[in-house]
Design a protein that fits this description.
Elements (H helix, E strand, L loop, with lengths): L1 E5 L7 H11 L2 E6 L8 H9 L5 E6 L8 H14 L3 E6 L7 E7 L2 E7 L5 H5 L5 E6 L4 H16 L1 E3 L2 H29 L6 H4 L6 E6 L4 H10 L2 H4 L2 E5 L2 H8 L3 E8 L2 E14 L7 E7 L6 E2 L2 H9 L13 E2 L2 H11 L5
Parallel strand pairs: 2-3, 3-4, 9-11
Antiparallel strand pairs: 1-7, 2-5, 4-8, 5-6, 6-7, 9-15, 10-13, 11-12, 12-13, 12-14
Length: 342
Amino acid sequence: MRLDVIDNSGATSMIAELRKELGACRSARMATASLTRGGIEFIEEAVSDSSGNLRVRLLVGLYNGHTEAAALRGLLGLQRRYGQYIEIRIARNERFHWKTYLFESRGRAVAFVGSSNLTKEGLGVEGEFNIRLIANGMVGALGHIAETFDRIWERDSCPLSVEIAERFAPASNRSKELARQIDPIIKGVLRRPRKSRARREQRISAVMTSIEGSVSRATIRAVKDKTDWYRKGWQWMVCRRRSDRDRLFNPGAFYLAEFQGTKVQLSLNDVLEKDEFTTEDGRYLVAYQKRKGSKFRSVTPATLATLKGAGVIKKKGDLQQDRRLSRAGREAINALLRVPQR
């Protein structure tokens, strides 16, 4: 028997591994304590693409209301369309907390046991820990997993129905509301201590970046729900790559060219905090604030001439490109922004 770890870091993720196993197996037993719409899309893909060769048993928990009522409704639709290939049951134990996935094909069995629920975060975000077991058939530990699953399936679960989905909906909605209130508090508790703002204000940065347009309303809601940045009056930026976010965060300060239609505004900003969670516009976020005592500066023909003379840019469009500034470039921008001297 072979064992290894899947923790959603690097090149491996649970979503990729489960998708691969579903595409190769003949039968699947899957159990999750929490389920969201983002966690079942790949199951529908596998069932619809299997040409009738796949049989899935999905056991879902309602623990603490974390399962989405909308996801249960989605499963009902999936069951109507592919009922001959997929069975869905609800665990009767209100504390059912399994995250177990077992796949079987000719001469091979694979099990994943760990922390990943069938949610978008559980399948693709760091912070999970799952053990994968591979054996030649349902032997040893894999056989015990299969037997335990089948026992709960037969004796302590019930078929998913419209009535269950609708009666569960208020608990699901209440759980979401509580999460929106609690998550920012927990993030604040776990956040690494920041260097004092006074100390950050002394940081000298050679990094210059730009932003253009605006983020989606959904992203704004996510930031309001998961951080206290709006309450503190901080500005923030979302990046699609960790390296882009860290490029701004690590120096502790950065110059910003903000494009608003045909207008461009320059500023020097001190980094205050970083965070990461899934939004429509990216995952990696950094909060910042204009350096105390400095000014915003609109880019005018005179400003452009100064920036060109210092070798910062050759044309206005260059401000849209991330760049590192020379000492002369920093001094020229600092003079324009009236940055207080140390």
